[in-house]
Amino acid sequence: MSSPRLALARHCAAGLFYLAMVLAAPCAAAGEFALAVSPPRFELELKPGERSRQVIEITNASPIATTFGIKTADWRLGVDNAATFLDELQPGSCRPWVAIERRELTMAGGRPYRFRFEVSVPPDAPAGECRFAILLEGQEQLTRMASGPPIPFSARLGIVVYVAIAGAAPQLSIAGAGVQTLNGQPTPVLQVRNSGTAHGRIGGFLTGTDAANTALEFSPANTPILPGETRGVTLSATRPGDPDNAAAIRYPVTVRGKLEWGVRR
Question: H/E element holding 224?
Fold first, then answer.
């Protein structure tokens, strides 16, 4: 039996992908650390010399008071789309532009707090995208496994901030397509290239039928594609009228439709 495979025909113009393919609210909780934040990320547009003040609404979901630290961090996105937060200033970091209102906060159980931060873009900042994270970190605790010594751990929650400077914008195109095994299942994946100066995401819906002539709908993961990179974006399959449950795919499957990507004006 041949392995699943994918062929792709494409056209891209003005932020719209036309595809024809043949396929052969965040929350952190640990122990006494239970926080919910809104919004989960910020996407700002600023000019050189401009300043922006923003508010994160933090809610302590624990019934008892919780103390946590707050700091900025750089971050990178792995091939598995997991973010790694970095305390050390990275080359070209814009964290020196960021001011946060405090480094530690104690919140009563069930009480919200409006946390403020500020981004000040230098007058000589070049066009591009500034990216950083604001980390909320719980105090270190000890946890015990079934056997062995106690293990120290601390929970953290990261809010990612993107700042497009001087009209920076994404420029996305489909670089390829294929089927990869993810979590033990063959999964259709688009390779999306960003030749622009800011991150972008693709959205929209595709339709198709599989080898059993079953009608399917496909939607892309909300994965950020950073400037200068090509990243795999998975397509999730569901049955029409049942968008909450994943559908099994019998390959080959034919998929057609269009995907859009936002362009900053």
Answer: none
Q: Does residue 1 lie within any of the structural domains?
A: no
Q: Name residues of the chain where pLDDT drops below 50.
A: 1-2, 6-14, 25-31, 141-143, 151-153, 264-265
Statement to judge: residues 123 and 198 lie in one domain: no
Q: Give 46's contacts (C-beta < 8 A, 6+ positions apart).
A: 52, 119, 121, 163, 164, 165
The domain tally of the chain equals 2
136: domain CATH number is: 2.60.40.10
In a domain, 14, yes or no: yes
Tokens of 44: 């700002």
Phi-psi category of 73—alpha, beta or left, where left has phi over 0 and alpha has psi -120 to 50?
beta
Query: Biggest alpha carbon distance in the chain?
Result: 61
pTM (2 d.p.):
0.82
